[in-house]
Amino acid sequence: MNFSVENLACRRGDVTVLTGVTFSVAEGEALVLRAPNGAGKTTLLRCLAGLTPPVSGALHFSPEDVAYAAHADGLKAQLSVEENLQFWADIFGTRDIAPAVDAFELSSLLSRRAQDLSAGQKRRLSLSRMVLTGRAIWALDEPTVSLDVENVARFSSAVTRHLAQGGSAVLATHIDLGLPTARTLDLSPFRAISQDAPSDDPFLDGAFQ
Ligand SMILES: Nc1ncnc2c1ncn2[C@@H]1O[C@H](COP(=O)(O)OP(=O)(O)OP(=O)(O)O)[C@@H](O)[C@H]1O
After folding, report:
1. Contact (Cβ atoms closer than 8 angstroms) between residue 21 and residue 28
2. C-alpha span between 127 and 104 (Å, rounded)
3. For 68-110, how does the pLDDT look when each residue is reduced to its tens digit (9 = 90+)?
4. Which stretches within the chain are classed as H helix?
5. Using the 8-state DSSP alphabet, how is residue 115 labeled?
6. pTM of this structure
7. Among residues 66, 151, 192, 209, which is most buried (max CB within 10 A)?
């Protein structure tokens, strides 16, 4: 799916983090967000997913078109892997969980409770949700954290299939995923110099520079 954003300003809490963000992504294309820690990658992805409305600017798509994978895995700890998959399939109106199971090699884990999975297994289960959403735009925040080399390759294959089916993707990642149609967007030029940031906040990056 083709989509674009125009002159977007995005905030976290009361602080405007990014201004003037403009880009477009074509059907079948992946856009990789690159920027230092704290520059606003998560902020932008949350804005695209409709979790935080933009301060200003335009989103030329519906947040309903976006499937968002956040830092947190977002699993139902007490449910089994299969029950988690079925839960999401019901939410997104998808009948068949098999493509998600196959994409992330979950078949041997189906009866295991989510809380008993390893960190990498949890991540695989969490990412498999993207396959079940049927949504055209995947927004992925550091998706490969906890994944070994083999599972990074599985993830890249899942994204490549999604793109080949006419989907698109925006990813924050620090590693090269080997995606055939990936373009890179450096967010550094869009960092806002916020007037709202309290100067004595020890967690603001500026305090450590
Ligand atoms: N609730 C909040 N209120 C105010 N500022 C926040 C809030 N959450 C995050 N920030 C700040 O917003 C800025 C952008 O954060 P964001 O998480 O988008 O960065 P990032 O590029 O994804 O970083 P990383 O690579 O470390 O994940 C950071 O300076 C962060 O400290």
Report:
1. no
2. 8
3. 999 999 999 999 999 999 999 999 999 999 999 999 999 999 9
4. 41-48, 81-92, 98-103, 119-133, 149-164
5. G
6. 0.90
7. 66
Ligand 1 pocket, CB under 6 A: 12-13, 15, 17, 35, 37-43, 203-205
Q: 27 is written with which tokens?
A: 């059907």
Question: Hey, where are the domains in the chain?
Answer: 3-208
pLDDT, average across residues 31-47: 95
Give the whole-angstrom CA distance, residue 49 versus residue 175.
Answer: 22
The residue type at 88: W
Atom of ligand 1 nearest to the CA of 174: 25
Q: What 3-state class would DSSP assign to 110?
A: coil
Domain boundaries 3-208, corresponding CATH code = 3.40.50.300
SS3 (DSSP) at 68: strand
Q: What is the pLDDT of residue 140?
A: 97
What is the C-alpha to C-alpha distance for residues 72 and 141, in angstroms, rounded to an integer? 9
User: CA–CA separation, 132 vs 160, rounded Å?
Assistant: 15
Pocket test for ligand 1, best of 11, 15, 174, 191 (most atoms within 8 A of CB): 15
Is the pLDDT at 203 greater than 80? The verdict is no
Residue type, 74: G
Q: Are 132 and 85 in contact, with CB atoms under 8 Å apart?
A: yes
Tell me how far apart the alpha carbons of residues 144 and 75 are, in angstroms, rounded to a whole number.
Answer: 16
Tokens in use for 55?
Answer: 């301060």
Q: Compute how many other C-beta atoms are within 10 angstroms of the C-beta atom of residue 178.
A: 12
Ligand 1 geometric centre to CA of 19 (Å): 14
